[in-house]
Amino acid sequence: MSRRRRMVVANWKMYGRLTSGLVLAREIAEKAEEARPLNFDLVLCPPATLTWAIGEALLGTPVMLGGQDCHTATHGAYTGDLSAAMFVDLGCRYIILGHSERRYGHGESSELIAQKVEAAQLAGLTTIVCVGETADELKAGETAEIIEKQLRESLPKKIKTANLVVAYEPIWAIGTGQQPEPEDVVTVHKQIRKVLGEVGETVRVLYGGSVTPSNAENILCEDEVDGVLVGSASLNADGFWAIAEKCQ
Prior knowledge:
about 250 residues, alpha/beta, TIM Barrel, eight-stranded parallel beta barrel
Protein backbone atom coordinates (compact mmCIF):
# COMPACT_ATOMS: atom_id res chain seq x y z
CA MET A 1 0.00 0.00 0.00
CA SER A 2 1.00 3.62 -0.46
CA ARG A 3 3.20 5.12 2.26
CA ARG A 4 1.39 8.43 1.83
CA ARG A 5 -1.90 9.20 3.58
CA ARG A 6 -4.66 9.00 1.02
CA MET A 7 -7.22 11.70 0.39
CA VAL A 8 -10.57 12.19 -1.31
CA VAL A 9 -11.50 15.68 -2.49
CA ALA A 10 -14.96 16.81 -3.58
CA ASN A 11 -15.05 19.61 -6.16
CA TRP A 12 -18.63 20.88 -6.21
CA LYS A 13 -17.80 23.38 -8.99
CA MET A 14 -20.67 25.86 -9.54
CA TYR A 15 -23.33 23.62 -8.05
CA GLY A 16 -25.32 24.02 -4.88
CA ARG A 17 -27.42 26.61 -3.10
CA LEU A 18 -27.44 27.22 0.62
CA THR A 19 -30.09 24.66 1.61
CA SER A 20 -28.99 21.87 -0.73
CA GLY A 21 -25.31 22.50 0.04
CA LEU A 22 -25.85 22.26 3.79
CA VAL A 23 -27.90 19.08 3.44
CA LEU A 24 -25.18 17.47 1.32
CA ALA A 25 -22.34 18.54 3.61
CA ARG A 26 -24.15 17.30 6.71
CA GLU A 27 -24.94 13.94 5.12
CA ILE A 28 -21.29 13.44 4.17
CA ALA A 29 -20.12 14.57 7.61
CA GLU A 30 -22.49 12.10 9.31
CA LYS A 31 -21.11 9.24 7.26
CA ALA A 32 -17.56 10.32 8.11
CA GLU A 33 -18.44 10.55 11.80
CA GLU A 34 -19.83 7.01 11.79
CA ALA A 35 -16.63 5.74 10.17
CA ARG A 36 -14.24 7.36 12.66
CA PRO A 37 -11.31 7.13 12.80
CA LEU A 38 -10.71 7.86 9.11
CA ASN A 39 -7.38 6.67 7.74
CA PHE A 40 -7.60 9.13 4.85
CA ASP A 41 -8.21 12.87 4.47
CA LEU A 42 -11.65 13.97 3.31
CA VAL A 43 -12.07 17.46 1.83
CA LEU A 44 -15.12 19.34 0.52
CA CYS A 45 -14.56 22.25 -1.88
CA PRO A 46 -17.92 24.05 -2.28
CA PRO A 47 -18.62 27.23 -4.26
CA ALA A 48 -17.23 30.33 -2.53
CA THR A 49 -20.72 31.52 -1.57
CA LEU A 50 -21.24 28.40 0.55
CA THR A 51 -17.81 28.19 2.13
CA TRP A 52 -18.65 29.85 5.46
CA ALA A 53 -21.90 27.94 5.99
CA ILE A 54 -20.35 24.60 4.98
CA GLY A 55 -17.37 25.27 7.23
CA GLU A 56 -19.70 25.83 10.18
CA ALA A 57 -21.52 22.58 9.40
CA LEU A 58 -18.24 20.64 9.32
CA LEU A 59 -16.85 21.92 12.64
CA GLY A 60 -15.91 19.05 14.90
CA THR A 61 -16.23 16.46 12.14
CA PRO A 62 -13.42 14.61 10.31
CA VAL A 63 -14.25 16.49 7.08
CA MET A 64 -12.02 19.38 6.04
CA LEU A 65 -12.85 22.44 3.95
CA GLY A 66 -11.28 23.72 0.74
CA GLY A 67 -11.71 26.42 -1.89
CA GLN A 68 -11.83 26.17 -5.68
CA ASP A 69 -9.59 29.08 -6.73
CA CYS A 70 -7.98 32.27 -5.42
CA HIS A 71 -6.32 35.48 -6.59
CA THR A 72 -2.57 36.05 -6.71
CA ALA A 73 -2.72 39.17 -4.52
CA THR A 74 -3.30 39.40 -0.79
CA HIS A 75 -5.72 42.33 -1.28
CA GLY A 76 -6.47 45.11 -3.73
CA ALA A 77 -8.85 46.53 -6.31
CA TYR A 78 -9.86 43.18 -7.82
CA THR A 79 -13.63 43.22 -8.10
CA GLY A 80 -15.19 39.80 -7.77
CA ASP A 81 -11.97 38.06 -6.72
CA LEU A 82 -11.06 36.38 -3.43
CA SER A 83 -7.61 36.16 -1.87
CA ALA A 84 -6.11 33.02 -0.33
CA ALA A 85 -6.21 34.66 3.11
CA MET A 86 -9.97 35.15 2.74
CA PHE A 87 -10.39 31.40 2.31
CA VAL A 88 -8.23 30.83 5.39
CA ASP A 89 -10.57 33.16 7.30
CA LEU A 90 -13.46 30.94 6.22
CA GLY A 91 -11.78 27.87 7.67
CA CYS A 92 -10.24 26.39 4.53
CA ARG A 93 -7.12 24.25 4.70
CA TYR A 94 -6.93 23.33 1.01
CA ILE A 95 -7.47 25.06 -2.32
CA ILE A 96 -7.74 23.73 -5.88
CA LEU A 97 -5.60 25.61 -8.41
CA GLY A 98 -5.03 25.14 -12.13
CA HIS A 99 -8.17 23.10 -12.77
CA SER A 100 -8.70 22.65 -16.52
CA GLU A 101 -11.94 24.62 -16.28
CA ARG A 102 -9.82 27.56 -15.13
CA ARG A 103 -7.00 26.96 -17.60
CA TYR A 104 -9.23 26.58 -20.65
CA GLY A 105 -12.44 28.28 -19.60
CA HIS A 106 -10.72 31.37 -18.20
CA GLY A 107 -7.48 31.31 -20.17
CA GLU A 108 -5.30 30.90 -17.10
CA SER A 109 -1.66 30.24 -17.94
CA SER A 110 0.62 27.98 -15.94
CA GLU A 111 2.64 31.07 -15.01
CA LEU A 112 -0.47 32.65 -13.46
CA ILE A 113 -1.25 29.44 -11.63
CA ALA A 114 2.27 29.41 -10.19
CA GLN A 115 1.62 32.87 -8.76
CA LYS A 116 -1.63 31.64 -7.22
CA VAL A 117 0.14 28.61 -5.74
CA GLU A 118 2.74 30.86 -4.14
CA ALA A 119 0.07 33.19 -2.73
CA ALA A 120 -1.99 30.30 -1.38
CA GLN A 121 0.95 28.62 0.30
CA LEU A 122 2.07 31.90 1.86
CA ALA A 123 -1.43 32.16 3.35
CA GLY A 124 -1.03 28.68 4.85
CA LEU A 125 -3.17 26.67 2.44
CA THR A 126 -2.25 23.31 0.98
CA THR A 127 -2.51 23.63 -2.79
CA ILE A 128 -4.07 20.95 -5.00
CA VAL A 129 -2.46 21.70 -8.36
CA CYS A 130 -4.17 20.18 -11.40
CA VAL A 131 -2.48 19.10 -14.62
CA GLY A 132 -3.84 17.18 -17.62
CA GLU A 133 -3.81 16.73 -21.37
CA THR A 134 -6.53 17.30 -23.97
CA ALA A 135 -7.93 14.60 -26.26
CA ASP A 136 -5.88 15.94 -29.18
CA GLU A 137 -2.70 15.90 -27.11
CA LEU A 138 -3.44 12.34 -26.04
CA LYS A 139 -3.95 11.22 -29.65
CA ALA A 140 -0.71 12.94 -30.64
CA GLY A 141 1.19 11.04 -27.96
CA GLU A 142 2.09 14.26 -26.14
CA THR A 143 0.78 13.38 -22.69
CA ALA A 144 4.20 13.11 -21.03
CA GLU A 145 5.43 16.34 -22.58
CA ILE A 146 2.31 18.29 -21.63
CA ILE A 147 2.22 17.01 -18.05
CA GLU A 148 5.87 17.86 -17.44
CA LYS A 149 5.54 21.32 -18.97
CA GLN A 150 2.37 22.17 -17.04
CA LEU A 151 3.76 20.92 -13.75
CA ARG A 152 7.11 22.68 -14.02
CA GLU A 153 5.51 25.96 -15.06
CA SER A 154 2.67 25.76 -12.51
CA LEU A 155 4.95 25.52 -9.48
CA PRO A 156 6.75 28.59 -8.09
CA LYS A 157 10.46 28.43 -7.30
CA LYS A 158 9.74 28.71 -3.59
CA ILE A 159 7.36 25.78 -3.44
CA LYS A 160 6.55 24.19 -0.08
CA THR A 161 6.25 20.56 -1.04
CA ALA A 162 4.82 19.71 2.39
CA ASN A 163 1.83 21.86 1.38
CA LEU A 164 1.54 20.46 -2.14
CA VAL A 165 -0.84 17.92 -3.67
CA VAL A 166 -0.88 17.25 -7.41
CA ALA A 167 -4.00 16.06 -9.23
CA TYR A 168 -3.73 14.41 -12.63
CA GLU A 169 -6.96 15.20 -14.48
CA PRO A 170 -6.93 14.23 -18.15
CA ILE A 171 -9.16 16.88 -19.69
CA TRP A 172 -10.73 14.42 -22.11
CA ALA A 173 -11.98 12.37 -19.14
CA ILE A 174 -13.62 15.17 -17.16
CA GLY A 175 -17.40 14.84 -17.30
CA THR A 176 -17.27 12.48 -20.28
CA GLY A 177 -17.56 9.12 -18.56
CA GLN A 178 -14.27 8.12 -20.18
CA GLN A 179 -11.24 7.15 -18.13
CA PRO A 180 -7.66 6.11 -18.85
CA GLU A 181 -6.58 2.59 -18.04
CA PRO A 182 -5.16 2.21 -14.51
CA GLU A 183 -1.73 1.42 -15.92
CA ASP A 184 -1.77 4.67 -17.89
CA VAL A 185 -2.66 6.60 -14.72
CA VAL A 186 0.24 4.90 -12.94
CA THR A 187 2.60 5.92 -15.75
CA VAL A 188 1.60 9.58 -15.46
CA HIS A 189 1.78 9.57 -11.67
CA LYS A 190 5.29 8.12 -11.81
CA GLN A 191 6.24 10.83 -14.26
CA ILE A 192 4.86 13.51 -11.95
CA ARG A 193 7.00 12.15 -9.11
CA LYS A 194 10.04 12.12 -11.38
CA VAL A 195 9.46 15.77 -12.33
CA LEU A 196 9.16 16.68 -8.65
CA GLY A 197 12.56 15.15 -8.02
CA GLU A 198 13.73 13.92 -4.63
CA VAL A 199 10.49 14.99 -2.91
CA GLY A 200 8.33 13.16 -5.45
CA GLU A 201 7.81 10.14 -3.20
CA THR A 202 6.41 12.30 -0.39
CA VAL A 203 3.94 14.42 -2.41
CA ARG A 204 0.44 13.02 -2.75
CA VAL A 205 -0.71 12.57 -6.35
CA LEU A 206 -4.45 12.21 -6.98
CA TYR A 207 -6.44 11.13 -10.01
CA GLY A 208 -9.50 13.03 -11.25
CA GLY A 209 -11.77 12.67 -14.26
CA SER A 210 -15.17 10.91 -14.29
CA VAL A 211 -14.49 9.17 -10.98
CA THR A 212 -17.60 7.19 -9.93
CA PRO A 213 -18.41 4.55 -7.30
CA SER A 214 -18.19 1.88 -9.99
CA ASN A 215 -14.70 2.73 -11.26
CA ALA A 216 -12.99 4.24 -8.20
CA GLU A 217 -11.67 0.94 -6.85
CA ASN A 218 -9.81 0.16 -10.09
CA ILE A 219 -7.94 3.44 -9.73
CA LEU A 220 -7.46 3.45 -5.96
CA CYS A 221 -6.05 -0.07 -5.86
CA GLU A 222 -2.87 1.27 -7.48
CA ASP A 223 -0.10 2.21 -5.02
CA GLU A 224 0.86 5.23 -7.14
CA VAL A 225 -2.61 6.74 -6.69
CA ASP A 226 -2.91 8.56 -3.38
CA GLY A 227 -6.58 9.43 -3.76
CA VAL A 228 -9.11 11.03 -6.07
CA LEU A 229 -10.49 14.45 -6.95
CA VAL A 230 -14.21 13.92 -7.54
CA GLY A 231 -16.49 16.20 -9.55
CA SER A 232 -20.15 15.45 -10.30
CA ALA A 233 -20.17 12.23 -8.27
CA SER A 234 -19.45 14.30 -5.14
CA LEU A 235 -22.87 15.98 -5.41
CA ASN A 236 -24.56 12.85 -4.06
CA ALA A 237 -23.70 11.89 -0.49
CA ASP A 238 -24.17 8.14 -0.95
CA GLY A 239 -22.24 8.07 -4.20
CA PHE A 240 -19.42 10.21 -2.87
CA TRP A 241 -19.10 8.15 0.29
CA ALA A 242 -19.07 4.95 -1.78
CA ILE A 243 -15.96 6.37 -3.45
CA ALA A 244 -14.40 7.63 -0.24
CA GLU A 245 -14.78 4.37 1.67
CA LYS A 246 -12.59 2.65 -0.94
CA CYS A 247 -9.74 4.42 0.91
CA GLN A 248 -10.93 3.32 4.35
